[in-house]
Design brief:
single chain, alpha/beta, Rossmann fold, Glycerate kinase, domain 2, 2 domains, six-stranded mixed beta sheet, 18% strand, globular
């Protein structure tokens, strides 16, 4: 279910139990997939369509939002995992070239401020593909120029700016990350490689490549990069790449969207707050929407109900979120596909049961 469908199910269940209640549903994003839908709801922007490469270099249709001179780009529109068939998912092979194409389109059409929303990517090229589309050249030990992917990062020996990068002059870039992990290390970008289709051997290659490009950044771009930059590991290191190649500032997507929707003020006035996530785990505390909502509820001492497919939160992690009430929908012994097929009805039933406790 997408956010609109989830909001509809929860609202109907609440009104079934409390017919005279006022329910306000808000599609709040954290910088990942769904960011444009959430932003459109808050700001009412113009939709702009263009053709770009997907993660495997195939031409696809993509959309970004524009408001005055500002472009809002959801990077998963071009390099998203969901654009790939399951058999195609391999961050060794994919790149972010299409993201650079979208940025170029926005600038050539008059935008001077570009916001990039990261998350849901099927890539781990540390933004090198994006940079290649914008005029950066990557060469190997023999001097051959190539467009990197996750599996060829160690091949890069030199990064060169060309005259084409003049397109970026005078443009302000802001990156909004859905997770605030660093680029390198076990708790960095590599943490998300398995869900993008990487095998154990692939992960070793990606980790070596990430360390290698991190060293090159320190050597060639020390003013714009340090190894522990918060959020640098988002979208397979695309955030760190944007900081280096675009001189972008990295921020929390949750902070951006909660502010755009005035969420703190709304939570302060609410009697009950309901939020959700497909899977609750330790990463839910690292800049994700559900963690931000729970933290605000704890601050204002509001009941927070979290509905999710599964939860792997430890008691300590749950306490960090303010001990919200968690309802899981996935039943033991069934496949994820089976659980998804029943998700709408199960969510309705679970919300109804929860609302019976608030009479």
């Amino acid at each position: 279910m997408n956010s609109a469908e989830v909001i509809h199910v929860i609202t109907e269940a609440c009104r079934e139990q409390h017919p005279h209640s006022f329910c306000e549903g808000i599609s709040v994003a954290d910088g990942g997939e769904g960011s444009l839908m959430s932003l459109q709801e808050a700001l009412q922007c113009e939709e702009v369509y263009c053709q770009v490469n997907d993660g495997l270099g195939r031409l696809i249709d993509a959309m970004y939002l524009r408001k005055d001179n500002k472009a809002y780009i959801e990077t998963s529109q071009s390099c998203g995992l969901m654009l790939l068939e399951e058999s195609e998912r391999n961050p060794i092979q994919t790149n972010t070239f299409g993201v650079g194409m979208m940025i170029s389109h926005a600038i050539l059409h008059g935008c001077t401020e570009v916001h990039l929303f990261l998350g849901g990517s099927g890539t781990h090229d540390v933004g090198t593909g994006m940079a290649a589309a914008l005029g950066y050249k990557f060469s190997d030990v023999a001097g051959s120029i190539f467009i990197p992917s996750g599996g060829t990062l160690t091949r890069i020996q030199k990064i060169t700016k060309t005259l084409d990068t003049k397109l970026l002059d005078g443009i302000s870039f802001k990156v909004w990350a859905d997770v605030l992990v660093p680029l390198t290390g076990e708790r960095g970008a590599i943490l998300f490689a398995p869900q993008k289709g990487a095998s154990s051997s692939d992960i070793r290659v990606l980790a070596q490549g990430t360390d290698h490009i991190s060293s090159l950044f320190l050597e060639q771009f020390p003013r714009h990069y340090h190894t522990n930059v918060r959020g640098g590991g988002a979208a397979g290191g695309l955030a760190a790449g944007a900081a280096v190649f675009l001189e972008a500032r990295i921020g929390s997507g949750w902070d951006f969207f909660s502010g755009a929707h005035r969420l703190e003020q709304k939570i302060a006035l609410a009697d009950i707050v309901i939020t959700g996530e497909g899977k609750l785990d330790g990463m839910s505390l690292e800049g994700k929407c559900v963690g931000g909502v729970a933290a605000m509820c704890s601050l204002y001492k509001k009941p927070c109900l979290i509905f999710c497919g599964t939860s792997e939160l430890t008691s300590t992690e749950k306490a960090t979120l303010g001990n919200p009430t968690i309802y899981t929908l996935h039943e033991e012994g069934e496949t994820i596909a089976e659980s998804i097929r029943c998700s709408s009805q199960r969510l309705n039933n679970a919300v109804c049961r929860a609302m019976q406790l608030y009479r």
